[in-house]
């Protein structure tokens, strides 16, 4: 599969293998970067590094910075996407230790590594690199709304951190397996780290969100598909702006709704109830018609990792009948996922 945005910003050449840094994280949803690298780029991961108090683990070997370097790691990659994208003060001693052990630092947070004086000084003294991937290109235009050639699929969701990236990666891989000309288009830090390029949509000034999405998925062959990683949720009280800009700019012909059964509140905003999948389908169709009148929902992707096999299968079958759309878990695969892929390509 081609690097997502070679025509725009070029492929990122990141030093790897990585040791995945989890800090003192206690909420698994905030460690989605680490989980994404573990699941989609396992050959680039030698282990994890956790601080005291952490309760989240990738299941990889727990290593010190020196042990990771001895195993071949060449960078410590911050695998946490916490609220606000900050690097807390209590992480910094471990990051300095990693630099001293011979590792570069890779991050995709809003807070830049080089803006932290003690990291910048240590890296400069030791000749190490501080690499931030959440840096959009300069001179992004305002969105034009011009209809582009080619086909586009966007994953959308009922909340953050529930499977939009995994669904997009799985669909892109399935398209390719069926002989379809396809590119995965990364819009977040983890996708960019996995694929080597992309557009960090949540780091783009809001007036230019739609234009950034247009750059991410330019004109292509009429039969070419861009499978675009979604961000946030169009009804999320914190992140709806990036979701709407991405929807208008990507102009999807097809969208897939991602959902985690059993989740009742939106991540990071206690008291805000999750929007139903039916309302997300309705709103996405209504708002998406602004730039693509032919937009349609091809089905739903459920994150059923908390359910047993039989329970997950029964739930997805029941929801498929209720919504009259394919419902599948891309990680489980099987006939339900094949039906979702077929619906996307129909």
TrEMBL record:
SUPFAM superfamilies: P-loop containing nucleoside triphosphate hydrolases (SSF52540). Gene3D superfamilies: NAD(P)-binding Rossmann-like Domain (3.40.50.720), P-loop containing nucleotide triphosphate hydrolases (3.40.50.300). InterPro entries: DgcN-like, DgcN-like_C, DgcN-like_N, P-loop_NTPase. Residues 59-136 form the D-glutamate N-acetyltransferase-like N-terminal domain. Residues 142-335 form the D-glutamate N-acetyltransferase-like C-terminal domain. This is DUF1611 domain-containing protein. It comes from Sphingomonas caseinilyticus.
């Amino acid at each position: 599969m081609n690097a997502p945005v070679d025509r725009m910003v070029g492929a990122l050449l990141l030093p790897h293998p990585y040791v995945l840094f989890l800090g003192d994280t206690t909420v698994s949803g905030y460690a989605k970067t680490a989980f994404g690298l573990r699941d989609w780029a396992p050959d680039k991961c030698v282990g994890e590094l956790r601080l005291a108090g952490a309760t989240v683990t990738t299941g990889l070997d727990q290593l010190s910075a020196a042990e990771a370097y001895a195993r071949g790691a060449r960078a410590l990659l911050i695998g946490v996407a916490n609220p606000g994208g900050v690097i807390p003060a209590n992480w910094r001693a471990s990051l300095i230790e990693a630099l001293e052990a011979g590792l570069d630092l890779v991050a995709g947070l809003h807070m830049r590594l080089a803006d932290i004086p003690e990291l910048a000084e240590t890296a400069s003294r030791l000749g190490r690199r501080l690499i931030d991937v959440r840096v959009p290109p300069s001179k992004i235009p305002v969105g034009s709304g011009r209809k582009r050639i080619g086909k586009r699929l966007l994953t959308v969701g009922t909340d953050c951190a529930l499977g939009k990236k995994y669904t997009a990666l799985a669909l892109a891989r399935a398209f390719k397996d069926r002989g379809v000309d396809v590119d995965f288009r990364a819009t977040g830090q983890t996708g960019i780290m996995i694929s080597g390029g992309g557009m960090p949509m949540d780091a783009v000034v809001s007036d230019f969100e739609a234009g950034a999405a247009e750059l991410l998925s330019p004109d292509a062959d009429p039969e070419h598909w861009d499978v675009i990683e979604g961000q946030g949720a169009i009804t999320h009280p914190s992140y709806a702006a990036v979701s709407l800009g991405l929807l208008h700019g990507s102009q999807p012909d097809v969208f897939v709704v991602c959902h985690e059964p059993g989740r009742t509140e939106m991540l990071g905003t206690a008291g805000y109830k999750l929007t139903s999948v039916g309302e997300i389908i309705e709103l996405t169709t209504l708002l998406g018609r602004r730039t693509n009148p032919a937009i349609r929902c091809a089905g739903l992707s459920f994150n059923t990792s908390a359910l047993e096999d039989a329970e997950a299968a029964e739930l997805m079958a029941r929801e498929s009948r209720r919504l009259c759309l394919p419902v599948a878990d891309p990680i489980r695969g099987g006939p339900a996922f094949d039906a979702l892929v077929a619906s996307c390509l129909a």
